[in-house]
From TrEMBL:
<dbReference type="Pfam" id="PF14934">
    <property type="entry name" value="TMEM254"/>
</dbReference>
<feature type="domain" description="3-beta hydroxysteroid dehydrogenase/isomerase">
    <location>
        <begin position="15"/>
        <end position="298"/>
    </location>
</feature>
<dbReference type="InterPro" id="IPR050177">
    <property type="entry name" value="Lipid_A_modif_metabolic_enz"/>
</dbReference>
<feature type="transmembrane region" description="Helical">
    <location>
        <begin position="13"/>
        <end position="32"/>
    </location>
</feature>
<keyword id="KW-0472">Membrane</keyword>
<feature type="transmembrane region" description="Helical">
    <location>
        <begin position="466"/>
        <end position="483"/>
    </location>
</feature>
<keyword id="KW-0560">Oxidoreductase</keyword>
<keyword id="KW-1133">Transmembrane helix</keyword>
<dbReference type="InterPro" id="IPR002225">
    <property type="entry name" value="3Beta_OHSteriod_DH/Estase"/>
</dbReference>
<protein>
    <recommendedName>
        <fullName>3-beta hydroxysteroid dehydrogenase/isomerase domain-containing protein</fullName>
    </recommendedName>
</protein>
<dbReference type="InterPro" id="IPR028110">
    <property type="entry name" value="TMEM254"/>
</dbReference>
<dbReference type="Pfam" id="PF01073">
    <property type="entry name" value="3Beta_HSD"/>
</dbReference>
<feature type="transmembrane region" description="Helical">
    <location>
        <begin position="391"/>
        <end position="420"/>
    </location>
</feature>
<dbReference type="InterPro" id="IPR036291">
    <property type="entry name" value="NAD(P)-bd_dom_sf"/>
</dbReference>
<keyword id="KW-0812">Transmembrane</keyword>
<feature type="transmembrane region" description="Helical">
    <location>
        <begin position="432"/>
        <end position="454"/>
    </location>
</feature>
<comment type="similarity">
    <text>Belongs to the 3-beta-HSD family.</text>
</comment>
């Protein structure tokens, strides 16, 4: 007998587009846990950090692109319910690839809708975003009665614009039928910023910048608040939304002709942990737990937007370069873009009351519990990877060694060698002493690198080679991190 918590799941076939992603993989595993007959993870990637767990549990992974109609049809044929999570351009430099953003988020959604109608699939849950109603204006405890932000005013957020168009397409097709006359019921879930162990968009970028010492300021002020949602809470909301599309629900919304629609049909729901918080205060425990620091300085939104727009212009120009000149995949992420300034510097949070009343959504994991598990995950990940200093010791050590080598051995004909030699002679008095200092510095780096390799073979063998090369370049700036790891492991 089917339990109420697994209603509409047991014995059914599900497709999750973007199924190899962070949320998609968690959703696939939860659907199997609840008794789904078959779960298909449809994704552009052949593999991801979550692939092993999906294969192990029996998820069928299908490689394809939502932009290709035939790929979508191949993945969706025979399904009972589709969760459309595949998207592009949420953050960073991908936001600037407007053509690809529109292809995936708009054209891809059209293909999913067409396949659902053609194959008689009865339920489609669309994973949308807060940004369909938010584009930099303050919103306090907003709800689903808020109108869509005007499409032509999404000037700096191609992702929000495309997701808004796609959501409206999905909801417009609610209660439509295809060739076989089966009704397709649709709804949209609008999650807040997503976090949790394994999240691969927001937190890795923040942590990388903190590790390099490139978080120079906080944006806005401490009164600015926004929502976050833990991955397990979002997965729960998605599943509850799919249950709310079952056409045998006792409770429904009256249709004009008198028959009832499923209670979630044609609806959109804001989803979060239900605890709005300042973004920088929210991530501070995570960075502190990793021995990184957030700056204490606050930067106004207006000034941050100036910096972000400069970054936007520079990266827009760079992304126009031909692939043979610049491969965008290797281009570092920009420090921040205008849409991201709005997300962290302007208050916007929403009520989950409608989701609670209509589909029974109540967060099962508190923000405190969710962040604790996220911190544990990142602490373990840090222990398994090569640690090191910020970018400033790298610049000091590498440029210093290059400078003293140039002063000691290169001819004055090479660029600024004359100036470098004059500076070194002022400090060390003679060329003999300059050369001796360089030799001693190289000897120190080599000996420290050998020691680091031997120590790492004992305390961190998987990264021993990395410790050797990093310490060879940085000397004690690197070695001190290994010594700390050895001390913690003793």
């Amino acid at each position: 007998m089917q339990s109420s918590e697994n209603k509409g799941i047991q014995g059914k076939v599900f497709v999750v587009t973007g199924g190899l992603g962070f949320v998609g993989a968690a959703l696939c595993l939860e659907l199997l846990r609840r008794g789904a007959t078959e779960v298909r993870a449809f994704d552009l990637r052949l593999s991801s950090p979550f692939s092993h767990a999906l294969h192990k549990k029996g998820v069928r992974c299908i490689q394809g692109d939502v932009v290709r109609k035939e790929d979508v049809e191949r993945a969706l044929r025979g399904a009972d319910c589709v969760f459309h999570l595949a998207a592009f351009g949420m953050s960073g430099k991908e936001m600037l690839r407007i053509g690809r953003v529109d292809e995936v988020n708009i054209t891809g959604t059209r293909h999913v809708l067409d396949a659902c109608l053609d194959f008689g699939i009865t339920r489609l849950v669309y994973c949308s975003t807060y940004n369909v109603v938010f584009a930099g204006q303050p919103i306090v405890n907003g709800d689903e009665t808020l109108p869509y932000f005007p499409i032509d005013e999404h000037a700096v957020d191609s992702y929000g614009r495309s997701k808004s168009i796609a959501e409206q397409l999905v909801l417009k097709n609610n209660n439509n039928s295809g060739k076989n006359k089966k009704r397709l019921y649709t709804c949209a879930v609008r999650p807040a910023a997503i976090y949790g162990p394994g999240e691969d968009r927001h937190l890795p970028r923040i942590i990388s910048m903190a590790k390099l010492g490139l978080l120079f300021f906080r944006i806005g002020d401490h009164n600015v608040k926004s929502d976050w949602v833990f991955v397990d809470n979002l997965v729960l909301a998605l599943i509850l939304a799919s249950m709310g599309l079952l056409d045998d629900n006792d409770e429904g919304k009256e249709k004009e002709k008198g028959n009832k629609l499923p209670k979630a049909a044609g609806q959109a729901y804001f989803i979060s942990d239900g605890l709005p918080v300042n973004t920088f205060e929210f991530i501070e425990p995570l960075l502190t737990g990793l021995d990184y620091q957030l700056p204490r300085r606050w930067l106004s939104v207006d000034l941050a937007l100036v910096i972000a727009k400069i970054s936007w212009v520079v990266y827009t120009v760079l992304l126009l370069c031909p692939p043979w000149l610049l491969n965008w995949r290797w281009l570092p992420q920009p420090f921040i873009l205008p849409a991201e300034v709005h997300k962290v510097g302007v208050t916007h949070y929403f009520s989950c009351l409608k989701a609670k009343e209509e589909i029974g959504y109540v967060p099962k994991v508190s923000s405190k519990e969710g962040m604790a598990s996220t911190i544990s995950y990142w602490q373990e990940r840090k222990r398994m990877t090569l640690d090191g200093p910020t970018i400033y010791p790298w610049l000091f050590s590498v440029m210093g060694m290059i400078g003293i080598f140039a002063a000691a051995f290169l001819s004055d004909e090479f660029g600024i060698v004359f100036l470098l030699r004059a500076i070194h002679l002022f400090v060390f008095r003679t060329m003999w002493m300059v050369r001796l200092v360089f030799v001693l510095a190289v000897a120190a780096h080599v000996s420290e690198a050998i020691y680091a390799w031997r120590l790492a073979k004992r305390v961190d063998p998987s990264n021993a080679r990395g410790w050797f090369w990093q310490t060879l370049a940085l000397g004690y700036f690197s070695l001190r991190f290994l010594l700390k790891r050895a001390e913690q492991g003793s």
